[in-house]
Amino acid sequence: MAAIRKAMEGTESVQERLDDFVAAISTSIKVDVASIYLIRGNNNDLELSATQGLKKSAVHNTRLNHGEGLVGHVALTAKPLSLADAASHPLFSYRKETGEDPFKSFLGVPILRGGRVLGVLVVQSREAREFNEDDNEELLTIAMLLAQIIIEDERTGGKKAALKGITLAQTKPETIRGKAFADGLASGQAMLHIVPLSPSERLSKDIEAEEARLEDGVKILRASVDSMVSGEAASLNRASKEIYETYRMFAYDRRWVGRLREAVHSGLTAEAAVERVRNENRARLMKARDPYLRARLHDLEDLANRLIRALSGENITAGQKVLPNDAILFARDLGPAELLDYDRKSLRAIVLEEGAASSHTAIICRAIGIPLVGRADGILDFIESGDPVLVDGESGIVNIRPLETQVHGFQLRMRIRGEVNKAFEAIKDRPAITQDERHISLQLNAGLVMDLPQLDQSGADGIGLFRTEFQFMVSNFMPKLKEQTDLYRQALDKAGERPVTFRTLDLGGDKILPYMDPVPEQNPAIGWRAIRIALDRPGLMRYQLRALVAAGAGKYLRIMFPMVTTVDEFTAAKALFRKELERASKFGADLPIKIEIGVMLETPALAWSINAICDHADFVSVGANDLLQFFFAADRDNVRVADRYDPLHPAAVSMLKDIADGCRRNDIPVSVCGELAGRPIEAMVLVALGYNTLSMPAIGIGPVKSALLALNAEKLAAYIKPLISRDSRLSSIRQAVHKFCLEEGIPV
Ligand code: PEP
Ligand code: MG
To answer: For residue 478, how far is its CA from the centre of ligand 2 (angstroms)?
Structure first.
């Protein structure tokens, strides 16, 4: 390894570096030939790029087609190949110009970077020698170092240093289409959540000490996995127990640990050994079509990452990293705690290979305004740390190493967004009053402490929907009574005079808690969720109502129940609240000075019971996301159908009108929460239908207010009236409303 260490020291160009490496290898492993073949171009040809022992004239002249010969086979399978008599192998392909006839034995290993094969490192010798496990290990180690160093050379050395016609680091612009999980545009440089080791951290100085470190690390890892399975078993559900069992199986897998030991024995640091074995597994498993096997890859990688953290003495479950101030974070997946570990001010955007719109990470990103693109399949194979990146959280498109024209276009869009935001900022403190003097209350949808600053930033008139389940979803354990009370109190304090409407837990459906057993259901959205769970198992809701009563002491407390279908359900939930109030009063606690209990109108059945529900509810809040998914029978989370029906379909609009009319007749305040209310066109229609309170995500408030300030609501109401009659043949009134806005000069 001494010769290799020397070859790692500075040289001018990638070619010189390769020449140094082959020379060092032939002395280190005592072979007659050492050659490097690198993949060239998009057709995956392999080109002889450096050699010690074959004819130098063949360098950059000899090429093998994709998969051709023994070298091609190694590249294709990403696995080492060792043969005592190479020429007798059926795949052997003889190239006269290299002068390789006298060499019998062959050992080839893939040169891997991440899971990508960059080329093949080959040694050959005259005698029909059996290469042993140590030779194999040593060559794999050298191949890994080689990959990193030459890529670094190329990146830092520019054109002068690069190899002719071959680029190792990726330079091609790539456009990857993912799913937009959190809105926003960002431009910056890529940062990998799992950072590769630097070359100096790879070669060990003392093999024995390194072996001891590895054993210690494995012990810590095993202990932590054991405690995941057993120690916290009481609070684990079946699904996570199964995952942890798989982890345990890998952590105790003798072959995995055996390969780590071999890698350390060949001269790597323990961390580099883990990384190398991880890359080999990755290269192999990425070729697997079987989704089960690919999922195992994720488990194994997670385990490897934990082991690296255990080795560096870091907390095994959390990472803390410093970022450049324009960082775009790339990861396979990211938990909410990991996300919150990063300095938010430097984080411009996040891109994940996995993730889901309803994941906790997505919820947090939306709350703190960081664009998030998920399901960007395979993106980690295209990205290197430091690559320039554009992330479009509107469309889910990620441009890696973008062309100049793409950068210009994107910057223009960012500037326009910035200007528009400035215009919204200017009207932040103005009340939303329409041209015909209607005062509209624009409120915020929130749920986490980190949402609260947006109350002031957006100029909202209150919190119209506080989704209390978010607190439950972002923690690993059930929040205690005090934690719930603290959160509700903070929301009320921050809002001051402005109203806050707490929605009781809306769990079930796709909102699964990591610490509760999921109940398998065919149709979770119309299954055992929200108030249905609360009434069947009242313990959890009573606990929550207790926290709400405590937080509301001396204040104005507004509570609403989700997913109510019948009036009975609502009165039963109200009775539970009354019990908690009586309990607090019996204990002599301070009580809220004013209480209002409302209902979320999210089912068509309740829309048809408007008079009856108005007899019992202090207010009605239309949960349009759910109401419309049930109305159209179209799953809001299913991308194939979610956008199939326009909320501005005359049938939906006339239902919304009936609800507003019904509430007005009964003199009950009515509002709309849900995404619909945060979009200017829809918001104007709602106001025209008679809604005076709209609750929406923070980014909706500026655009909605600016549209409402220019709107004559009565005029729009008259304009849409004939369009939404039962005779209407339209599938949406959107275009008509657009036309109205154009004629009226309303900015949308
Ligand atoms: C709704 O359904 O419109 C709503 C606001 O509730 P959620 O989106 O949390 O289901
Ligand atoms: Mg809902």
So the answer is: 21
Question: Best mutation site among 602, 606, 629, 679 for ligand 1, i.e. most ligand atoms within 8 A of its Cβ?
Answer: 602
- Asked if 699 and 599 sit in the same domain, the reply is yes
The pLDDT value recorded for residue 128 is 86
Q: CA-to-CA distance for 405 and 445, rounded, in angstroms?
A: 38
Q: Which of 79-83, 322-326, 356-360, 607-611 has the highest mean pLDDT?
A: 607-611
623: Cβ below 6 Å to ligand 1?
yes
What is the span of the domain harbouring residue 399? Answer: 174-193+321-418
The pLDDT score that the predictor gives to residue 629 is 92
417 phi, psi to nearest 5 deg: -60, -40
Which CATH number characterizes residue 306's domain? 1.10.274.10
Across 112-121, 231-240, 319-328, 536-545, least confident range:
231-240
The residue to which tokens 């999210």 are assigned: 602
Boundary of a domain, candidates 278, 311, 344: 311
Calculate helix-pair angle for 291-311, 207-226, nearest 10 degrees. Answer: 120
Q: How far is the CA of 521 from the centre of ligand 2 (A)?
A: 18
DSSP string, 489-523: HHHHHHHTTS-EEEEPP--BTTB--TTS-----S-
Same domain, 185 and 130: no
Last residue of a domain, one of 387, 418, 449: 418
- The 10s digit of each residue's pLDDT in 140-149 is 888 888 887 7
What is the number of the ligand closest to the CA of 510? 1
How many whole angstroms separate alpha carbon 665 and alpha carbon 662? 5
Residue located via tokens 């959390």:
318
Do 572 and 525 belong together in one domain?
yes
Judge whether 166 lies within some domain: no
* Residue-level pLDDT at 234: 40
**Are 147 and 243 in a shared domain?**
no
Looking at the structure, tell me whether residues 150 and 216 fall in a common domain: no
Q: Atom 9 in ligand 1: which residue has the minimum CA distance? A: 467
Q: Is 467 in the pocket of ligand 1 (CB under 6 A)?
A: yes
What separation in Å is there between the alpha carbon of 682 and the centre of ligand 1? 16
Q: Spell 576-585 as b/e; 16+ CB within 10 A means b.
A: bbeebbeebe
Report yes or no on 316 lying in a domain.
no
Same domain, 214 and 297: yes
Give domain status of residue 333, yes or no: yes
Q: What is the mean pLDDT of the chain?
A: 88
Q: Is the dihedral of CA 39, 41, 43, 47 positive or negative?
A: negative
Cα separation, 463 vs 559, whole angstroms: 12
Contact 481, 444 (CB under 8 A): no
Angle between helices 207-226 and 238-251 (to 10 degrees): 160
471 lies in the same domain as 581: yes
Which ligand approaches the C-alpha of residue 464 most closely?
1
Q: Which atom of ligand 1 is nearest to the CA of 445?
A: 5
- CB-CB neighbours of 317 under 10 Å: 13
C-beta of residue 455 within 8 angstroms of C-beta of residue 497: no
673 lines ligand 1 (CB under 6 A): yes
Taking 70 as the threshold, does the pLDDT of residue 245 lie above it? Answer: yes
Residue 379 lies in a domain: yes
Q: What is the pLDDT of residue 422?
A: 92
Judge contact between 106 and 86, C-beta under 8 A: yes
Does pLDDT of 688 surpass 80? yes
Helix (H) / strand (E) element for 111: namely strand 105-113
Question: In this predicted model, what pLDDT tens digit does every residue of 508-556 receive, in sequence order?
Answer: 766 667 667 667 788 888 998 999 999 999 999 999 999 999 999 999 9
The pairing of beta strand 500-503 with beta strand 556-564: parallel
How many folded domains does the chain comprise? 4
76 alpha carbon to ligand 1 midpoint, in Å? 50
Q: Classify the C-alpha dihedral 93-97-102-104 as positive or negative.
A: negative
Pocket of ligand 1 contains residue 602 by CB under 6 Å = yes
Q: 396 and 490: one domain?
A: no
Q: Are 643 and 700 in contact (CB under 8 A)?
A: no
Query: How confident is the model over 32-42, as a mean pLDDT?
Result: 88
